[in-house]
Amino acid sequence: MLAAAIFALYWSGKSRNRTNKYAGIILALTVILQFITFLGLNIYAPYAFAFFTLFAGFEAMNSFKFETRHKLFFGYAAIASFICIVEGLIKLPFNLYQEWILLPIPLISYYFWKHSKRVIYHRLGVLVIWSAQAIVALVTAPWMKKLLSEIF
Which parts of 35-93 fold into alpha helices (H)? Predict the structure, then answer.
């Protein structure tokens, strides 16, 4: 997750659109802030990450280059990421399978990167952070831990 945030920080800095640049940079900084324990600011990082993931997702709705499928994907990714973050902060009486909710994000991101690179290019930093969140959720899932312990 930290490597994805550093990549997103670098990649978003190259963006020409000001709000797109700020969305990627702030989202990357909130991820980096989760790993810094100085002054106890990492306690508030998930709340900031939840807010700025919605900001980054719905900021894409203003793009004239995006087709409806791009806008739907960014809306889904923002809401799914937000729900999984909030589920981690507030203990719900039921269990959400975060890995299955977040799994389409890296797959669809890869599809868009292959087929509409020109449109997605400046928002790749945000997509990398969301994809890293999905991969972390998949790898840390209880059934995956059990499967990996049986294999290795």
Answer: 45-59, 68-89
